[in-house]
Amino acid sequence: MKRLIVQAAVLFAGALTLVGMGAVSSMISGHEPVVATVETAPEVKVDSTSALATMTSQLKATRVELQRAHQILEYSSRYAITADLAASIYDHAVKERIPPAIGFALVKIESKFQNTAYSYASAIGLTQLMLPTARAYDPSINASDLMNRDVNLRIGFRYLRDLLDRFDNDVALALEAYNKGPTLITAQREMGEEVRGRYSRAVLSGARRGSL
Question: Which CATH number belongs to the domain containing residue 92 in this structure?
Fold first, then answer.
């Protein structure tokens, strides 16, 4: 029993000595004694309003993309063309603020969806562009460029958009100008002639049948 008491006393004294040495060492180094602490994960605050806005934006984008895919497949089936071609016509029409139904009807009438279509009047490609007209938008364009699907659609639909702006969004007038040229249409109007004719009726009729 006495031995146990002595051993305990020795251990207690040793512990006090170690603590004292640690305190002295801290005083010499100028640092506070190291105290073990348990780190806790930082609190993460979630802004519910921001999260909801992000989710709403993502859902809207997904809905728009699904609607686009659905319409492209519908036009592809309706006109018996590849989905890839239908996507190009649809996207270029939307970009130039042309109703897709009118874009598809125009391409069908102009070229029957053939990239390499070439008329007796030297009109080229899907939208049957004349080379001088295309060069007004891109002076570096050549005839072979206009057989490139995306180049032809981009310039053709931009030209139609400009005609719509010029004729106050009168679709029939813009279509006749696309077919006959804006100078002739303007001159005929000034002479009091009726300029809305078979071409615009054909495109608009096709657009109504092909609209979704």
Answer: 1.10.530.10
Comparing CA positions, the residue from 117, 106, 120, 110 lying closest to residue 203 is 106
Between the alpha carbon of residue 54 and those of residues 46, 51, 57, 59, 66, the distances in Å are 13, 5, 5, 9, 18
CA pair distance 84, 73, nearest whole angstrom: 9
pLDDT per position as a tens digit, 90-138: 999 999 999 999 999 999 999 999 999 999 999 999 999 999 999 999 9
Give the distance, in angstroms, between the CA of residue 43 and the centroid of all CA atoms in the same chain.
Answer: 37
The percent of residues in the chain predicted with pLDDT above 90, rounded, is 67
**98: nearest Cα among 207, 209, 185:** 207
102 within a domain of the structure (yes/no): yes
Q: Phi and psi (nearest 5°) for 143?
A: -60, -40
Q: What is the pLDDT of residue 89?
A: 98
